[in-house]
Amino acid sequence: MxxxxxxxxxxxxxxxxxxxxxxxxxxxxxxxxxxxxYILQYKKTSESDSAYTTFSTPSAPTTIDTVTSLTNGISYSxxxxxxxxxxxxxxxxxxxxxxxxxxxxxxxxISTPLSSSAQIAFTDPISNGGATITNYEYSKNNGSxxxxxxxxxxxxxxxVPGLTDGNTYTIKIRAVNSYGSGTASESVSVLxxxxxxxxxxxxSNTPTKRTLTSLTVSLNVAGKATFLAxxxxxxxxxxxSSSGVSPNIIAACNWRPSVMGRNIIxxxxxxxxxxxxxxxxxxxxxxxxxxxxxx
Length: 295
Description:
Elements: E1 3-4, E2 16-18, E3 21-27, E4 37-44, E5 53-56, E6 64-67, E7 76-84, E8 87-88, E9 95-97, E10 107-114, E11 117-123, E12 135-139, E13 147-148, E14 158-160, E15 168-177, E16 180-181, E17 188-191, E18 198-203, E19 213-219, E20 223-229, E21 232-233, E22 240-241, E23 249-255, E24 261-263, E25 265-271, E26 279-282, E27 286-288
Antiparallel strand pairs: 1-3, 2-3, 3-6, 4-5, 4-7, 7-8, 7-9, 10-11, 11-14, 12-13, 12-15, 15-16, 15-17, 18-19, 19-23, 20-21, 20-22, 20-25, 24-27, 25-26
Pfam families: fn3
InterPro entries: FN3_dom, FN3_sf, Ig-like_fold
Keywords: Immunoglobulin domain
């Protein structure tokens, strides 16, 4: 039987919970054949015993190891068994410990552009790291530099200020507690400002003279779209209402080309929310081919 020299839950040396890690210290069995190695296992305390994972198998006489890559603020359970030529002995009593430190990363960031700023919604970190989250920090350049929210804000969504309308930013955020700044989130991209965007013209088939062709564009906000061919409005494609919700808003219409050869499709976007600017889009040249006639 392997027993812990000191209760892990005491959180004091030689058993110590640090930031993202816990040091486990145990004593060798007092009876039976001496072990040649040990098995150190851990799991989240909330999980069933089937979740135990082997962290290390140190060789005797080593009786200490540090379990790393843990999440601050989450309780873990630890156990140890001795191993020799006869097999694996009985596991020790379980001891629990909670590493404490800066919080883990927030997740699932969603950006919404605002005038000179952006709203960032997110899912809270899975724990507070062992201390109350008091604020968030943000980076506008993919983590190269960081600034704290002022005034402080510890609730989703937050507003990232100081953006220039029309510029694209790669934003990350991280939580802050009394232990320091936490792990950075994944990045989210945002085009600052209340600007309408028209992207991704999709043409249903090779444009053919006097043959129906569907034109579809993606929009960032709801509104109406007018399609033009070579600068002239397409009669059936004037102020077409969009459908769908962000980020899957589209406007579509049907076009029967009347001019063969090169056609440039442009689109004008008139957002429903008039705080957004109108937008424009121009495609590369589409080649309209003659209609094949049967004889």
